[in-house]
Design goal:
Layout: E1 3-4, H1 7-23, E2 30-36, H2 40-55, E3 59-65, H3 71-83, E4 89-92, H4 102-106, H5 120-127, H6 136-148, E5 156-160, H7 167-176, E6 180-184, H8 186-190, H9 194-199, E7 203-206, E8 224-227, E9 231-233, E10 236-238, H10 243-249, E11 252-253, H11 261-279
Parallel strand pairs: 1-11, 2-3, 2-4, 5-6, 5-7, 7-8, 8-11
Antiparallel strand pairs: 9-10
The structure holds NADPH dihydro-nicotinamide-adenine-dinucleotide phosphate (NDP).
Length: 280
């Protein structure tokens, strides 16, 4: 029976480290959060980010902008936050209204103030193994892998899902640890090869958003399984991996909820701290 890789205790430990470093700074770091329009999903992210920031001694300033604002106005607003020496990090809440292109707007954030780690320059630094600000969910996965105590060197590591926010940046972080990385996606499934790849994974990371996509019996005996997926099924939240059958075969597995999720917001705060240190 696999050991559970729970995110909360790992998050608590990292939060203590962040808190101590924040306390040692000469002034409180500031995370500026931009929300455009009234979206309940975005409001709920803001609430949890604010709570997490304040518990660590980070100031969270919320900028609520009008739904109808033009894309250029948002970019100009980001420009004022970039120029403001009191602002250390910036995050744009999703979703944005359909007339605003997230990539264009977020590209205006200075790389050194990019709290989400998604600016092309920060992604580029990952390629060179030099990133200090990294995308939050991949960073959370790496922390959980550290917790599993597995040495990634040479391990057959399979990622399912190649999104820009999870699968692709995660592949770079894993390569940096000398894992042997395969990235599966819809093309792998269409070719009928998903099971084949999953079954040889010593480390399996799934980030798709389809409940039960990965059958428990596909999981290799003793594998480390990180399930990033979040799916609502009836009144329950489940991952992408069939949990009970996978748990019977794996050595370590993340629960959903309670695995990657609790760490993601902590990684955002760690990025903010890194940004503040880089700006000193
Ligand atoms: P995306 O929809 O952006 O990406 C999903 C990926 O899965 C795509 O690469 C897609 O390929 C691939 N895919 C879809 N269907 C299949 C299939 N049948 N077989 C193999 N691959 C497939 O999602 P995200 O990366 O944003 O999120 C993935 C999941 O992780 C979601 O459930 C999300 O809620 C969760 N999540 C959880 C976080 C956390 O903190 N715990 C944070 C971020 C996300 P293609 O694009 O080619 O179709």
């Amino acid at each position: 029976m696999a050991r559970l890789l729970e995110g909360k205790p790992v998050a608590e430990r990292i939060k203590e480290e962040i808190k101590a470093e924040v306390a040692a700074l000469s002034r409180k770091p500031v995370l500026a959060s931009i929300i455009v329009g009234q979206n309940p999903g975005a409001q709920s992210y803001v609430k949890s980010q604010k709570k997490a920031a304040e518990a660590l001694g980070i100031e969270y300033t919320l900028h609520e902008l009008a739904e109808g604002m033009a894309e250029q106005e948002l970019c100009d607003f980001i420009g004022t936050l970039n120029a403001d020496k009191n602002v250390n990090g910036i995050i744009i809440q999703m979703p944005l209204p359909p007339h605003i292109d997230y990539k264009k707007a977020s590209g205006f954030i200075l790389p050194g103030k990019d709290a989400e780690g998604m600016h092309p320059a920060n992604i580029g630094n990952m390629l060179f193994g030099k990133a200090r600000i990294v995308p939050c969910t991949p960073a959370a996965v790496m922390e959980l892998l550290k917790e599993s105590a597995i040495d990634l060197n040479g391990k057959d590591t399979v990622i399912v899902g190649h999104s820009e926010i999870v699968g692709k940046p995660l592949a770079l972080l894993l390569l940096d640890k000398f894992a042997t990385v395969s990235v599966c996606h819809i093309g792998t499934s269409r070719a009928g090869k998903l099971q084949e790849h999953v079954s040889r994974a010593e480390v399996l990371i799934v980030a798709v958003g389809k409940a039960g996509l990965i059958k428990g019996e596909w999981v290799r005996e003793g594998a480390v399984v990180i399930d990033v997926g979040i799916n609502r099924v009836g009144d329950k939240i489940v991952g992408d991996v069939e949990f009970e059958t996978a748990q019977a075969r794996a050595s370590c597995i993340t629960p959903v909820p309670g695995g990657v999720g609790p760490l993601t917001v902590t990684m955002l705060m760690r990025n903010l701290l890194e940004a503040a240190k880089l700006q000193r």
